[in-house]
Amino acid sequence: MKTRLKELRARDGLNQTELAKLAKVSRQTISLIEREELIPSLLIAVRIAKIFNESIGDIFFFEEDE
Amino acid sequence: MKKHVGKMLLGAIAGFIVAYGVMHLKFDVNMPAMGFEFTIIFMIITMILISFSLIGYMKVKGDAKKQLVGDAQDELETLQYKRSSDTMIASNTAIYFSTLMLAIVSLTDVPNIFIFISLGLVLVSIVLNTIYANLGKSLQPERNWPSVNDKDYAKKILAISDEGERHVILQGLYGAFASLNGLLLLAIFILIGYSAVSGVSQLLAIFIIVFILIITNTQYMLTIRNK
């Protein structure tokens, strides 16, 4: 699964620590999601989508062959 | 699972080769006679580890007060996380080496003063380890950290961890569990070889290791089976 998390963070001027606080998770979790080493749960995906005012599908998406 | 079985087999094969080699080379290490040298070596290693952990602890505590913004804040958090992990590794290793030193001092002909030194090092290592376990509170004071003395400490730590942290913990624990199985199997074969060569039976140690392997593996399999 791919993510635009890093790009959206840069857009809104947030670092990982600040995003983690807003999403009520650890910075480690944000880092893992960003590096595409962890697929977030629906709860975290919804929180992140709300923070960036985007739909979940616009932040987390599958490539053609996935 | 294949990787896990592979590691165990590798441990068994390596242990067999080492044991076979030891038996045929008539390799003889006079452990009791080398007690003093071993004591000094492990004492120095333990002291270095304790010093390293203390330096790491002070750096983590010092940098926890820094107020940074942007990427610098993320970089500091990453560094602090690594430092606190290194501190815990050093402190854990110090406990094991000081315990090993205590064992050598108790079982070999080493001046009595070393019994007190080794006991002191074991105590210092354990106390420091307990203090370091609270490092999380300095780094993330807003979290509801359980007390180190809590009997359900491990369960509560897991409970306050989020999914990313649990993911990392699981990866680490499973890797360590697989290594432990392989290494203990290797230890059994080494002890068999040593017993055969030296004529000093290590059967008690072999019994204990076998029971540890049976208990931990059964505990793990039952946890999976009952979910």
TrEMBL record, chain A:
SUPFAM superfamilies found in the cross-reference section: lambda repressor-like DNA-binding domains (SSF47413)
Record CDD domains: HTH_XRE (cd00093)
Domain (HTH cro/C1-type) ranges: 5-59
Coiled coil start-end: none
Keywords: DNA-binding
PANTHER family: DNA-BINDING PROTEIN, TRACRIPTIONAL REGULATORY PROTEIN-RELATED-RELATED
Protein's recorded name: Helix-turn-helix transcriptional regulator
Naturally occurring in which organism (per UniProt): Lysinibacillus piscis
UniProtKB/TrEMBL annotation, chain B:
Annotated keywords: Membrane, Transmembrane, Transmembrane helix
Transmembrane residue ranges: 9-27, 33-57, 89-107, 113-135, 173-197, 203-222
Pfam families: DUF3169
InterPro entries (alphabetical): DUF3169 (IPR021509)
Domain of life: Bacteria
Protein's name in the database: DUF3169 family protein
Organism listed in the record: Lysinibacillus piscis
